Amino acid sequence: MNYQSYFDEVWPDIDAVPGWMSPGQEKRLFELVRSLPGQARILELGSFLGRSTVSMAFACRDTHKHIYAVDSFEGNDNDFVSGKNEVYWEGNDFLDTFKHHLERNNLLRYVTPLRGWTHDIAPHWTLDVDMIFIDAGHTYEDVSKDVKDYFDFVKPGGIVALHDVTPGWPDVLKVWQELVAPRLEDIDNQGSLYYGTKPKK
Q1: 93, exposed or middle or buried, with CB in 10 Å at 0-12, 13-18, 19+?
Q2: Rounded distance, CA 67 to CA 73, Å?
Q3: What is the mean pLDDT of residues 117-142?
Q4: Mean predicted lDDT score pLDDT of the chain
Q5: Residue 148 — very low, low, confident or very high, per pLDDT cuts 50/70/90?
């Protein structure tokens, strides 16, 4: 089965996971992960209910690729309110909901959830990664710190991706333009999902 047919087959399962992604971004993440080596490590900063995680995890199926998903799984009172924009979960946090979306698709084996704020986990992070997807805090301080904390862990030739690179999120756009894009090659985008390749040494 080719990638397109496979994605079309799993798309209803991806689309059943609530989240905030623009059309085509789930498929682009899927394609990026499919392009990685068979034992690749992917680091996701900001996972929410798992829409992007499930998209990437389907691309890990039948490989030794693995995703480390970092999130507080608590959110905040402004951006993470159950029912906002028709996105729902139960309880005081959404880690169980996140895991449920992976488990019902038999994908949890490809994902390690790491509960915590990205800046708190950074001092303890030691693994090189083949791809990083940054979609956690959206202030300039938060995004720039995520880039500074984790960029060096991306292997030469690895992929660096940011979500919400758009004038609607001016701080994210500024970090992309100032701190990320100048350090990448082969830059492309799918809507507000921007990504590129870290140059090989």
Answers
A1: middle
A2: 16
A3: 96
A4: 91
A5: very high
Count the neighbouring beta carbons within 10 Å of the beta carbon of residue 6. Answer: 15
Q: Residue 142 in contact with residue 136, Cβ under 8 Å?
A: yes
The pLDDT tens digits for 8-60 are 999 999 999 988 899 999 999 999 999 999 999 999 999 988 999 999 999 99
